[in-house]
Design goal:
- The protein is mainly alpha-helical.
- It comes from Rhizobium herbae.
Length: about 300
């Protein structure tokens, strides 16, 4: 056997477990879940097909509609906040400040923590009984109010605050790497022309970071769709349904209400959401990499 073919055969054999896992574990369970969403399965799987009845029930649920609205608000503010704060942190560190390595570690450290830990930290900080509000009031400012985590109108913004605190470090690292890859001649030319530093970052540096920030945004958006643990740790979906999210709705119906059909219907909608979030980015990357002049 030719050495090259032998190497290719060895590589194919080595990848067989990965292909098996991808086809059986991921694609197989996905197809099985979609199938169950068209049945009347409750505690155990059923073969009694009911068409789109579970989806009709899903979208007639006020709690599911509220969860979609909440995840949309959270997602837009979370991704935008992470991108904006991450870019600002990267721009600050790009100025080669003292102790840059220490600051970079500090800013990135929250991203290394799980959302459960982040949620518990911010749940304690925003708790009006012994958190920031209680600490400020103990200093004499009795009228100070910072009760977002128990306020129906502000609870979703408390989640955004905690999420941005954790996710901005990822954007900072990606943006900083992109900034360090930009040629120094551009800086010299801009400084000779007397362009202010902030204008250089906004008009020259930021446009060149488009692909890097788009990749970071896609990663953050995919995380938004499956948001669950930070909600459970901070608010458990409350007050009321003000912080209910689709993933929590699915888990509650799967384990709490033993409604397997409704839960898998919600999971199928989430899968479609992931595809909707990834498809535009993949298409943009395909168009970017396509040879010029190609049809």
């Amino acid at each position: 056997m030719h050495p090259k073919r032998k190497r290719n055969l060895a590589a194919t054999v080595a990848l067989l477990p990965t292909w098996f896992a991808a086809i059986v574990v991921y694609i197989g369970t996905m197809v099985w879940s979609i199938r169950l969403s068209f049945t009347d399965s409750t505690l155990f799987p059923s073969s009694n097909y009911v068409g789109f009845a579970q989806y009709a029930k899903l979208f007639s649920s006020s709690k599911w509609i509220a969860s979609l609205q909440n995840v949309l608000v959270f997602g837009v503010l979370y991704v935008a906040g992470c991108l904006a704060l991450g870019f600002l942190l990267a721009a600050a560190l790009d100025r080669k400040v003292r102790f840059e390595s220490a600051f970079r570690t500090i800013f990135l450290y929250p991203y290394a923590m799980s959302f459960v830990v982040t949620g518990l930290i911010w749940q304690w900080m925003l708790n009006p009984t012994f958190g920031i509000q209680a600490s400020i009031r103990s200093l004499g400012w009795e009228s100070f109010v910072f009760d977002w985590v128990v306020n129906r109108d502000m609870a979703i913004y408390a989640l955004v605050l905690a999420g941005v605190w954790q996710g901005a470090g990822l954007v900072m690292v990606i943006a900083l790497a992109g900034m360090r890859g930009i040629e120094g001649e551009q800086w010299k030319a801009a400084q000779i022309d007397g362009i202010p530093v902030w204008r250089i970052y906004v008009s020259i540096i930021l446009p060149q970071l488009g692909p890097a920030l788009a990749a970071a945004g896609m990663l953050l958006a995919m995380g938004v769709i499956k948001t669950y643990d930070i909600v459970v740790a901070m608010t458990n979906g409350g007050p009321g349904s003000s912080t209910e999210v689709p993933a929590k709705f699915i888990m509650d119906n799967l384990f709490g209400r033993q409604n397997l059909g409704l839960a898998t219907a919600g999971a199928t909608v989430l899968v479609l959401g992931v595809i909707a979030a990834v498809a535009p980015f993949r298409y943009a990357m395909h168009m970017r990499n396509r040879p010029r002049g190609a049809a």
